[in-house]
Description:
Layout: H1 10-23, E1 26-29, E2 34-37, H2 40-48, E3 53-54, H3 76-88, H4 90-93, H5 97-116, E4 123-124, H6 125-130, H7 133-142, H8 152-166, H9 175-178, H10 180-194, H11 205-211, E5 213-214, E6 217-218, H12 221-251, H13 254-262, H14 267-277, E7 283-288, E8 292-294, E9 297-299, E10 304-308, H15 309-312, H16 347-364, E11 365-370, E12 391-396
Parallel strand pairs: 2-10
Antiparallel strand pairs: 1-2, 3-7, 4-12, 5-6, 7-10, 8-9, 11-12
Helix pairs in contact: 5-16, 7-12, 8-12, 10-12, 12-14, 12-16
Amino acid sequence: MTANPFDPDPDIRMEALSKLRGVCPVTTLGEGATYLALSHQAVAEGLKRVEEFGGSAGQQGLPDDDKTIAGMLEPRHGQVRRIINAVVAFHKSQRIEPFLGELADHLLDATLAAARDAGPDGVDVMTSYIEPIPPRAIARLIGFPPDDADRYYLWAQRLAEAFAKVAGSGAALSMIDANPEMAAYVMRQIDARLALPAGSWPEDALSRFLTTDVDGERLSPRSISIQIMFMIGAGSETTRGLLGNLLYRLAQDPELYGRVRSEPSLVDPLVEEALRIDAPAQFLVRRCLHGGKLAGTEIPQDAAVMLAIASGNHDPDVFADPDRFDIDRDTRDHLSFGVGSHICPGAALARLEARTAMHAFVRRIGSFRLADGYRFDHALTGMVHGPRTLRLLLEPAG
């Protein structure tokens, strides 16, 4: 029986992707309605050629006001992207680094306190340390109350479940219909901002959305709410997975962790190698807009194309010994944030969150290991990669 390339178990999934990649850089799924790009070249081509491969799953046929930035085609995609870039690009996201540092230390205080009483079962660092960081960073950048960020993961999970139900069916789904509770919350925040004098609005993502023209017009409140829902969902889950995967790897390699503690400058390559080997988003879905070839394979118009980021990041033609975690390798060509003009606009923010969290961790935690009997608690779907729980035994530094 052939292993499933979408299996929730990452070991089974990667084995299947490796076998398929060894046969052909692009293959068909089922009767050919969907294509799977596997090689680094094929995935990179699909990401770069945005005029030929665009849109996203569950977005086709929706009006522009109901599409997320991932589902928009050019030129509207680029126009809305500029608004998001204005608040999450490198020079903008860096402004919240002090906030993130204080948050990380506060969370580590609580995590170490819990670890002292945890016994051999260890403490779940996903809930005590990792999970609060991404949503609180996003809430601060958007301009939403930070205490509300505790609800973001549940909302993101509901969005993912709703879109999973329509994936592959060809049906379209608006984010507002996918999670009405979350949509109502975002709309209340928009209404509250609009009720204030414009001159008093803070400089954040919400104000930027409300004041920037797109093709000569302002975005509607409905469209703004959808972009913000997308930012919350995508930005919370992926960074969570990145940090969870990274700590899981380090927990099994005390020698490497000791090296990073003695050389904190290694945190940057550590994060990049974690992104390569354990891409939080394992696949991206695009649509072939006009028909054409991808890595030599003919793709018909309107066919769905799944770009296997995980497979491209493990292509031995680009990364030697790709299944080995090696922070000394050149990771510049990894695909975890995409490549080309549609590269993830939140990449700088995700890297900032991961670096800040890891610098605090290596400063405060002298050593750590997996709790007795712990096995990787993988996600429930093969589309994303990261532990749901991560139970660790921690020893504080000094």
